[in-house]
Amino acid sequence: MRADIILSGVGGQGILSIAAVIGEAALKEGLYMKQAEVHGMSQRGGDVQSNLRLSDQPIASDLIPKGHADLIISLEPMESLRYLPYLKEDGWLVTNSQPFVNIPNYPDMEKVNEELDKLPHKVILDVEAIAKEVATARAANIVMLGAAAPFIGIEYNKIEDGIRRIFGRKGEEVVEMNLKALKAGYDVAQRIK
């Protein structure tokens, strides 16, 4: 098993929480893991990107070369485009349909969507709307994780366990809210893929 995953978004969207949950699930699965993170200039609103490499064999580098990512998980559609050169030809993109407009020259969403539409393997969903429907808007990142779960290569129940371990200290109500968000995203991806 080997999975090279790029997580992208902007500060405050919960990219690093997604990486933490996947990391917990990978450890439970007995996998090797390497991770590299890049944080933008500001805590909220700056570019956040993480390379997450999982394997059943030792991993030499924590960085994913261009053209080698199996999966891009992005909470921001323009940020997903930034990392497309890293995606394998048969790789999957799982991205939010709603922009986080944090710059004055944000590209027209019609043009962003034209580029996204060119991809053969993609799941595009409004994670905030789904999160509000099943839990709270704060769980949008976990909805995204659920939508990406079929493409990670780790059993779904181990991802659920990762949520329990990462959010357990915040109480059972928070854990249950995140499990509902995970399932909602997973169900959408099952219908799309």
Automatic annotation (TrEMBL):
Return the Pfam families for the record. Answer: POR
List all membrane-crossing ranges: none
Highest taxon in the source lineage: Bacteria
Pyruvate/ketoisovalerate oxidoreductase catalytic domain residues are 11-187
Give this protein's Gene Ontology molecular function annotations.
oxidoreductase activity, acting on the aldehyde or oxo group of donors
Q: Which InterPro entries match?
A: IorB_Oxidoreductase, Pyrv/ketoisovalerate_OxRed_cat, Pyrv_flavodox_OxRed_cen
**Which keywords accompany this UniProt record?**
Oxidoreductase, Pyruvate
Name the UniProt record assigns to this protein:
Indolepyruvate ferredoxin oxidoreductase, beta subunit
Q: State the organism's lineage.
A: Bacteria, Pseudomonadati, Bacteroidota, Bacteroidia, Bacteroidales
